[in-house]
Recover the amino acids of this structure.
């Protein structure tokens, strides 16, 4: 049933003659969902959410563990502590959400006090090989034989607990479901629960709410739940505190008391065993109220008989529909390439999350998306990829960012659990808005977007740790962010003077692009500011590793307000030195070295090449960077460096570099990500690299490299046109990775880059491959534009 529906869907959306020739049987084998493995990145810091969710869904159900639990579950061998239904994906640092976990158990004897309520006591291993993760579905069997399955709707989750194979608890057969008023980070400030159980109907309800802290942001948030459990005759119910429980009272309010001591508490419902079937637990969620949590559950997963299978089917349909615009001709490429690809596509749609109707901060008819965690990670490839795959949704995300500006006075830089997240670099929502503009996303108020970006560029907020920019007085007066700036206007972490200078310069370049396009008279002013990065280039700076000179000259360095240079070792903050974040080892470059930031001038690579001493030196430096251990392939600033050779007329070197990282650093193992997925940032690097069109967002530019498959086609949602990029002489072993010549819509094409029209107008790009570099795409006029080129400058913003 499901598979036939998929077949129809592929046919209608893709109308590909190739697929049309295939039999229905082949379509069954080719169900795209079979190529998605949500467990990729579930250990070694990938921190992906591995459980059940809808595309961009708010409800995300999974088993939570006590090891690497930033995204809830991990295959790191740690123990399961609960099952919860709010999560983020791929984030770093503190674990996010995981509120109100429930936990099934059979307590020894009949005494409720023998149940294991505390997190450490109840943590349990699971049976090896019992984990199954698919889009919209997750299952695992606990060590004691309790079999658990889960799926979701938009704002509710459904869990099924089968106790029939459970090791009975010392003579007892009475299953208990408990709920813990906690979250993964144990950030709860205070919380309430009330328990109602009807012995006669065999259903019990626990509902309540709690105040928690965002995992990487300011303030606090309230979350609400409404849990209905059914499956047999109810024996008793009540609340628990510490490891003691009672059937009276049926309500509880818990706070943080002496020294902020963390009291564990919650509710429970116990059934009279043995049961004839499984226990079903429906968890409704909301950020508005307990009533809304109950309504969400009742509307999306109607009772009294909860149907897990049909919910799974709907979730699978929703995912297939999202994957439908893309089709691949394998050309003999490996199954693992295909799994790598589709699993990555899947992970780009876990977050941002659609919280429309769940925004507690303001009322609006506009869409509301949350878990932009963080835009510093997402603007580079993930959001540009969604612009390719899902432009209608991307427009709504952009509208949500603008609505946030309207109601909070500032564009967000990072958002999680409805709170403002910490800013890492520049005001990077600016880049997202302008990328949407140059790619013609529809339904967006561009004058409002201009106003919002100008606000970032001109006005310094009191708290620039979570919105806007800091040091704007110096930025306007000195034309760089000084080392040890004097800034009494606003407050933030006053580090990162080099990386903020580079990021603000790119933010201002994007603003200039929009200003010019909208006919404002500020474009020249912002274009001038876009060159500010040059003020921190110290042309005689050298760099040594373990006392050996690397023989490259010229790096960004910190500069005091008085114009005197400061010093930061160019290899500091690289993988060869100590990591630098906002709180640990804060430095003048953020999460990356001066070596890596040398290549972060997305709008003027041509000028960088000139400053570093022409193409050969630039290419040697890039090569050294990628082979010396200085490059941090597990973090976002590195992405663009992989494609830099395009600017020096050597697109073949970019292709070669991509293949040195995929699959060796981005692959299908559970530890197959080199760093935090960061909502889907690592995923989208994989996808657009494998498609062979990598963006430089904010500009209408994709770098061309050969796809990892025979061909890839993408249907554009706005125009229904199908774009195809294909290889001639495709070699599944990737020896032929060098473009010899190219045809665009049948005509010779020599540029090594292309605009977004490729997708909107449904063009066909055919690449002829060979096993060594050719002169294709090497000429000066074939390279992507740079701001200070003779042919670049203002023109590049108008393509
Ligand atoms: C998991 O729990 C078991 C007891 O069930 C314990 O022996 C083991 O050490 C725990 N594993 C971890 C990784 O904490
Ligand atoms: C059974 O449970 C009772 C009550 O907790 C306990 O005293 C007893 O030791 C348990 N027996 C076994 C074999 O676990
Ligand atoms: C929070 O939960 C408690 C317990 O169910 C309930 O009394 C209270 O009304 C809830 N508050 C809100 C705002 O929903
Ligand atoms: C927790 O306390 C804060 C501050 O007193 C209050 O605003 C909030 O409503 C409380 N939350 C819950 C869940 O009771
Ligand atoms: C690749 O996947 C197909 C379809 O699932 C399967 O029939 C084939 O055996 C797989 N090939 C390898 C080498 O695993
Ligand atoms: C977002 O969620 C709202 C509320 O559930 C829904 O009406 C809307 O269709 C969703 N938006 C998208 C773009 O899926
Ligand atoms: C830089 O040049 C010096 C002198 O020729 C040489 O000893 C050194 O090994 C070179 N450094 C690197 C990293 O190759
Ligand atoms: C500039 O300021 C720095 C830091 O205060 C100081 O070390 C340096 O001597 C000053 N340079 C000049 C030329 O005054
Ligand atoms: C897969 O990727 C991980 C993370 O980058 C890496 O550590 C591992 O060596 C890779 N595995 C293979 C087989 O290439
Ligand atoms: C694209 O196709 C859809 C579905 O057939 C249709 O509703 C829509 O009008 C088409 N859009 C364009 C621009 O042709
Ligand atoms: C955007 O629209 C303009 C004006 O219609 C057109 O010239 C341009 O090619 C479009 N860009 C894309 C990426 O579709």
């Amino acid at each position: 049933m499901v598979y036939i529906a998929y077949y129809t869907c592929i046919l209608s959306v893709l109308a590909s003659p190739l697929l049309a020739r295939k039999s229905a049987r082949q379509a069954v084998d080719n169900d795209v969902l079979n190529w998605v493995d949500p467990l990729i990145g579930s250990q070694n810091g990938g921190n992906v959410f591995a459980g059940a969710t809808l595309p961009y869904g708010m409800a995300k159900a999974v088993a939570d563990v006590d090891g690497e639990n930033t995204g809830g579950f991990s295959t790191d061998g740690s123990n399961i502590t609960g099952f919860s239904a709010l999560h983020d994906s791929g984030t770093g640092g503190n674990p996010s959400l995981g509120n109100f976990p429930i936990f099934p158990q059979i307590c020894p004897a009949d005494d409720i006090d023998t149940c294991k309520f505390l997190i450490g006591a109840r943590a349990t291993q699971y049976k090896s090989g019992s984990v199954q993760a698919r889009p919209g579905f997750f299952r695992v069997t606990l060590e004691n034989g309790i079999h658990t399955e889960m799926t979701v709707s938009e704002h509710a989750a459904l869990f099924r607990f089968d106790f029939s194979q459970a090791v009975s608890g010392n003579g007892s057969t009475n299953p208990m479901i408990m709920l813990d008023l906690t979250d993964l980070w144990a950030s709860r400030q205070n919380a309430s629960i009330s328990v109602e159980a009807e012995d006669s109907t065999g259903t019990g309800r626990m509902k309540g709410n709690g105040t928690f802290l965002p995992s990487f942001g300011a303030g606090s948030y309230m979350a609400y739940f409404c849990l209905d459990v059914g499956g047999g005759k109810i024996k008793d119910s009540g609340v628990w505190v510490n490891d003691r429980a009672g059937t009276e009272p049926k309500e509880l309010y818990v706070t943080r008391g002496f020294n902020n001591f963390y009291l564990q508490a919650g509710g429970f419902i116990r059934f009279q065993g043995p049961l004839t079937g499984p226990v079903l637990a429906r968890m409704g969620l909301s950020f508005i109220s307990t009533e809304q949590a109950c309504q969400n559950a009742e509307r999306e997963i109607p009772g009294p008989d909860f149907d897990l299978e049909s919910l799974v089917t709907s979730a699978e349909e929703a995912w297939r529909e999202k994957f439908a615009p893309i089709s691949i001709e394998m050309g003999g490429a490996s199954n693992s390439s295909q799994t790598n690809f589709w699993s990555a596509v899947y992970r780009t749609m876990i977050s941002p999350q659609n919280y429309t109707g769940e925004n507690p901060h303001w009322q609006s008819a506009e869409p509301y998306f949350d878990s932009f965690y963080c835009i510093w990670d997402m603007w580079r490839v993930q959001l540009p990829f969604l612009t390719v795959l899902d432009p209608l949704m991307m427009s709504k995300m952009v509208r949500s960012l603008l609505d946030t500006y309207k109601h909070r006075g500032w564009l967000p830089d990072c958002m999680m659990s409805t709170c403002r997240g910490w800013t890492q670099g520049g005001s990077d929502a600016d880049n997202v808005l302008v990328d949407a503009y140059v790619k013609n996303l529809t339904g967006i108020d561009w004058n409002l977007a201009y106003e919002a970006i100008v606000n970032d560029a001109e006005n310094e907020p009191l708290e620039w740790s979570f919105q806007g920019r800091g040091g704007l007085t110096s930025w306007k007066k000195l034309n760089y962010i000084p080392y040890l700036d004097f800034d009494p206007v606003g407050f933030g972490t006053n580090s990162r003077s080099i990386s903020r200078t580079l990021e603000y310069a790119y933010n201002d370049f994007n603003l200039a692009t929009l200003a010019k396009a909208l006919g404002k008279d500020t474009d020249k002013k912002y274009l001038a500011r876009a060159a500010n990065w040059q003020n921190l280039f110290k042309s005689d700076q050298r760099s040594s590793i373990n006392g050996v000179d690397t023989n490259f000259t010229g790096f960004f360095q910190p500069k005091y307000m008085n114009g005197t240079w400061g010093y930061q070792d160019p290899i500091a903050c690289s993988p060869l030195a100590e990591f630098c974040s906002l709180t640990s080892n804060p430095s003048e470059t953020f999460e990356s070295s001066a070596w890596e930031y040398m290549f972060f001038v997305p709008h003027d690579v041509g000028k960088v090449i000139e400053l570093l001493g022409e193409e050969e030196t630039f290419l040697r430096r890039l090569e050294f960077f990628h082979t010396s251990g200085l490059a941090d392939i597990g973090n976002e600033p590195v992405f663009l460096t992989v494609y830099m050779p395009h600017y020096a007329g050597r697109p073949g070197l970019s292709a070669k570099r991509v293949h040195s990282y995929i699959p060796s650093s981005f692959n299908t193992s559970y530890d197959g990500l080199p760093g935090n997925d960061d909502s889907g940032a690592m995923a989208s690097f994989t996808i657009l690299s494998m498609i062979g069109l990598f963006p430089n967002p904010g500009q209408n530019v994709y770098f061309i490299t050969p796809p990892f498959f025979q061909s890839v086609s993408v249907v554009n949602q706005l125009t229904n046109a199908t774009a195809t990029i294909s290889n001639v002489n495709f070699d599944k072993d990737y020896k032929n990775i060098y473009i010899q010549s190219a045809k665009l819509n049948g005509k010779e094409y020599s540029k090594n880059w292309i605009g977004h029209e490729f997708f909107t107008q449904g063009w066909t790009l055919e690449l002829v491959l060979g096993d060594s570099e050719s002169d294709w795409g090497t000429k000066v006029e074939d390279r992507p534009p740079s701001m200070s080129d003779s042919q670049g400058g203002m023109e590049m913003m108008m393509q």
Remarks:
- The first strand starts at residue 52 and ends at 53.
- The longest helix spans residues 497-517.
- The chain has 21 helices and 32 strands.
